[in-house]
Amino acid sequence: MQYVRNVGRAFSPLDKELGLLNGELTPRLQESVVRLSTWMPFGRAAKELKYFTRVEVSEATARRITEGAGSDYVGVQTEQVEHILKQAPPSPPGPELQLISADGAMVHEVTGEWVEVKTLAIGEVKPKGDAGEVHTRELSYFSRLSEASEFNRQALVEVFRRGTEKAGKVCAVNDGADWEQKFVDYHRPDAVRILDFAHAAGKVAEPGRLIFGEETAEFREWFNKQKQSLKLGKTEAVLRNIRGLEKRARGRGRGKKLKTIRGSMNYLEKRREMINYNEFQTLGYPIGSGCVESANKLVVESRLKQAGMRWARQNIDPMLGLRNIACNDRWEEAWPQLVNHKLEAISENRRQQRALKSLEQLHAKEMITAQDSISGAQLQNAENPAQEKPIEARVKTPYKPPADHSWRRKVFGSARYRTPEGFTRAKR
């Protein structure tokens, strides 16, 4: 009886059509685990899944599936960045007035180190209403744990999607960090750069607190006047009043007070063009970076900075990628991309395994061919014994010590030896 040969493992095209991933859970359950774990801790997500679906998974399983999905989505965005850089496709259209703001938030690693996660917020600025207020809508976010230069490159996927390149006017509202200004240089050098008003007001308040005292009535009165003048565009008056505090810097700590006063003045002097708040408000530009500060809390801290949480470095970006999907309300768009990337990776891995197996089989075939050649040569020699050299047989003989060997000359104790007459003692 003949048996059918095993055809081995294969990848069905229907797997990709149905979105079938590895594991025991259905695609819908895997998506549910990932979505729940994006909004809440893994243990809580597993409990909520059991409540709604009556399917029980462990916290470790929820973590593994979620972090794997996040890693796949990071891979999707990395490929999109490579495509943009290599193919240079035309940018989609952008709004007439767009806001971009970048900032950082700290996350605790399992090593005990605090690391900075950088976040970009992009929105469309709505024209001033009856109340004269400027609002930013259609906000989207991008977050990564990376160095400034790498973040500039990674964020290209979101900057491109929002049409920042073709936006009519871009307002870059940030604080004074150098990496944020370099980010603007990389993506939109002609953007209107605005120093966050709250940040500028904080620089004004620093010397006032030292001179008048923390939260004193005199400090509040002085600070409110300077803040109002700053918003009305009276920059010179503000700088002059800060400089006037030098005369009041007396007593203990005078050196520290003078250093703080001059530091605030130099900081604002270097950013004169970024603090023309009266002009910015007249043009309908935003002067605050509250949207990215809110993004730090919404996207990063609410999930990655809960009580007692510590993260392995390799798992931070995957969770940030999923948080961006969820907070941008783009889950239905991004999840199929994530699944396709995963299935393509599985298919490619199987192709590589098949190729490696083919190479191993080819190598084994070559080894068999070489062995057959050696066996053929040996068989040919056996058929022609005349050509073989005769093998000389070696006769093994017992070892016999010579007459002068020490065994024969030396007598030990009262040893006896046999003679024809019987046993006798050895002579000494």
How would you characterize the overall build of this protein?
The N and C termini lie far apart (87 Å). The chain is 54% helix and 12% strand. Strands 3-2-1-4-5 form a 5-stranded mixed β-sheet. It has helices spanning 13-18, 27-39, 42-53, 59-87, 148-154, 156-161, 178-187, 197-212, 217-231, 235-243, 254-270, 277-282, 290-304, 313-327, 331-383, 406-409; strands at 97-108, 114-126, 135-144, 169-174, 192-195, 416-419, 422-425.
Q: What's a concise summary of this model?
A:
With 428 residues, the chain is an alpha/beta fold. Helix content is 54%, strand content 12%.
CA-CA gap between termini: 87 Å
Q: How many individual domains?
A: 3
Structural class: alpha/beta
Q: Strand-and-helix sequence, N→C?
A: HHHHEEEHHEHEHHHHHHHHHEE
**Low-confidence sequence ranges:** none
Structural topology:
Blueprint: H1 13-18, H2 27-39, H3 42-53, H4 59-87, E1 97-108, E2 114-126, E3 135-144, H5 148-154, H6 156-161, E4 169-174, H7 178-187, E5 192-195, H8 197-212, H9 217-231, H10 235-243, H11 254-270, H12 277-282, H13 290-304, H14 313-327, H15 331-383, H16 406-409, E6 416-419, E7 422-425
Parallel strand pairs: 1-4, 4-5
Antiparallel strand pairs: 1-2, 2-3, 6-7
